[in-house]
Specification:
Elements (H helix, E strand, L loop, with lengths): L11 H13 L4 H7 L3 H4 L1 E4 L2 E4 L7 H13 L2 H10 L24 E2 L2 E2 H21 L12 E5 L3 H12 L8 E5 L4 H8 L7 E6 L6 H15 L11 E4 L3 H7 L6 E2 L17 H7 L1 H20 L6 H15 L4 E6 L7 H13 L17 E3 L11 H6 L6 E6 L7 H20 L3 H10 L4 H11 L7 E6 L4 H21 L11 H13 L10 H14 L1
Parallel strand pairs: 5-6, 5-7, 7-8, 8-9, 10-11, 10-12, 12-13
Antiparallel strand pairs: 1-2, 2-13, 3-4
Helix pairs in contact: 1-4, 4-13, 7-11, 7-14, 11-12, 12-19, 13-19, 14-19, 17-18
């Protein structure tokens, strides 16, 4: 079943939302708390290892219900069914979108006549066997020594997802050190290689085509580094691949038995659940990798079955539409109060902006409304000393997700109390702000004169009324992390569905790559291609420096 192609602005619900926005835009969130009975209880959901409080949003209960009506009017229920059923909802590439099947061992979905669960379970068994050999020391390098370092070579989803998860689950680290090479910047590659021992290093090359420019060049450089110490016949002891192009991997020197599958129905930015996540299994152990999948599966089930007004991914997606399309907010912040999640915002940048950064609707026409959102953020409390100034007193509306954990992993309660007091304080500060009366009282208590108070007053007032969502989990475990990532995946799907775009292609990535190949040839020829004057000047400057 193809997804519907309805322009959301043509619906009755959208028109009603416009009216409600005009009616309510001057009403503060605190006013909603005063006027709406049981707002806190109504605007919370607990499911799939997560608790969401979305009561601190610039939206009335009436407008929220209208957003839910919009989802129903556009046929989101049927869209979710198509998403999970293996329908070719990635129409421009003629592919299904089935990363959800990677964490459902009992899926009955078939693609091209093959039962997806059989392929997935076979791959999982292979990953388990591989990680056990690495952790037990049974996998030996060319000199007979066991593996101590695993290096993931990929880019985009083949790097960001596993890299983020390995960082997030560092507490569960196994006695194998995991590294990531992604950028084609040679300095980056050599900085990693300089930390490694060739006798005890295993590389995982993750590329569906085994021809991605950055990944293949980084793999070749890594192989050249290895060959300074051993011979080509030993390469297979130090390289495995995750790829659909088995022949290319074998040509590189990888044993056919050590090529793990990648499927067309899994997009790169959603592939960490597949064999592309082998580095995760190596880092934290296969049992923890399975728990990661299990947490995601729980969120999948919640997303499929919960009513839209009690559905965490749907609620977050609808609120994003509310701010993006009615308040014209252009960005959203993700603020995890855990240093372990320092790469979560970067991961979500790619997952969201590469998916929904589109201006052509599913009907092939230019959209007449805002799509996508700029996603950014850093962990608290570091972020409080960086960009919170703009969020509190700047001119832009920036909705934010605050993510926190009730219990620390290492058990230091004093640090946890400091962390979580800041966590709760910031969402309250964004909500309530600080009035002129409160500032005056505070300055008087500090002994300031009336003249000084009048000068300082406008600079110390906080408007408040800044929207936040609060997401809480008991502890950062593999299962909790799986639920959190899957939640954002489904939020992305819902927003793309509502905005009537194809979320799972990425044609916008291609143009720069094509031009880069042309310019690369220009470095070695006298007659350049037809470039604009600025670019030609820059190319000439570079050619002069490299000659």
């Amino acid at each position: 079943m193809a997804l519907t192609t309805t322009n959301p602005t043509s619906t009755a619900s959208w028109k009603k939302l416009n009216e409600l926005y005009q009616k309510n835009k001057g009403i503060s969130i605190l006013d909603f708390f005063s006027s709406e009975q049981n707002r806190v209880k109504k605007f919370q959901v607990e499911a799939a290892n997560l608790f969401l409080d979305f009561s601190k949003n610039k939206i009335s209960s009436e407008a929220f219900q209208c957003l839910v009506e919009l989802a129903h009017e556009l046929g989101l229920k049927e869209g979710i069914q198509a998403y999970f059923s293996g329908d070719e909802i990635n129409e421009t590439e003629g592919r299904a979108v089935l990363h959800t099947a990677l964490r459902n061992p009992y899926s009955k979905v078939k693609v091209n006549g093959e039962l997806v669960s059989e392929l997935v379970n076979k791959s999982l068994n292979k990953i388990e066997g591989f990680t056990q050999k690495v952790h037990s020391g049974a996998w030996k390098g060319y000199s007979g020594k066991s593996i101590k370092h695993v290096v993931n070579i990929g880019i985009g989803g083949s790097d960001l997802g596993p890299n983020m998860v390995v960082d997030a689950l560092a507490y569960y680290q196994q006695p194998v050190t995991t590294h990531f090479i992604s950028n084609v910047d040679g300095d980056h590659v050599h900085e990693i290689l300089n930390k490694l021992d060739p006798e005890t290093t295993l590389f995982i090359v993750v590329s569906k085509s085994f021809s991605t420019q950055e990944t293949l060049n980084n793999a070749n450089t890594s192989r050249d580094w290895l060959l300074k110490h051993t011979t080509q016949t030993e390469v297979a002891k130090h390289f495995v691949a995750v790829s659909a192009n088995v022949e290319k991997a074998i040509e590189f020197g990888i044993d056919k038995a050590h090529v793990f599958p990648m499927w067309d129905w899994v997009g790169g930015r959603f592939s960490l659940w597949s064999a592309a996540g082998i580095s995760i299994a190596c880092a934290v152990g296969f049992d923890n990798f399975k728990d990661l999948l299990a947490g995601a599966s729980e969120m999948d089930e919640h997303f499929r079955s919960a009513s839209f007004d009690k559905n965490i991914p749907v609620i977050l997606a609808l609120l994003g539409v509310w701010y993006g399309n009615f308040y014209k907010a252009e960005s959203e912040a993700v603020i995890p109060y855990s240093q372990y999640l320092q790469k979560l915002a970067s991961y979500l940048q790619q997952a969201s902006m590469e998916s929904n950064g589109k201006s052509i609707g599913r009907d092939g026409k230019l959209v007449n409304y805002q799509t996508g959102s700029i996603v950014w953020g850093e962990p608290g409390t570091n972020s409080q000393h960086a960009f919170f100034q703009l969020m509190h007193q700047g001119t832009q509306l920036i909705p934010a997700d605050f993510i926190g954990f009730l219990k620390p992993l290492h058990g230091n309660q004093h640090h946890q109390d400091l962390l979580m007091s800041n966590f709760f304080a910031q969402t309250e500060a964004f909500l309530k702000g600080k009035t002129a009366e409160e500032v005056k009282k505070e300055l008087k208590q500090q002994g300031k004169s009336d003249e000084d108070i009048d000068k300082l007053l406008p600079f110390k007032v906080f408007e408040g009324n800044r929207p936040t969502n609060t997401l809480l989990a008991e502890k950062l475990t593999p299962k909790t992390l799986g639920s959190l990532i899957a939640m954002y995946e489904h939020k992305i799907f819902v927003q793309g569905f509502i905005w009537n775009v194809f979320s799972y292609d990425q044609w916008g990535v291609e143009l720069g790559k094509q031009l880069a190949n042309t310019i690369l040839r220009d470095f070695s020829i006298d007659e350049p291609q037809n470039h604009d004057p600025s670019t030609q000047q820059l190319i000439d400057k570079y050619k002069k420096a490299r000659s």
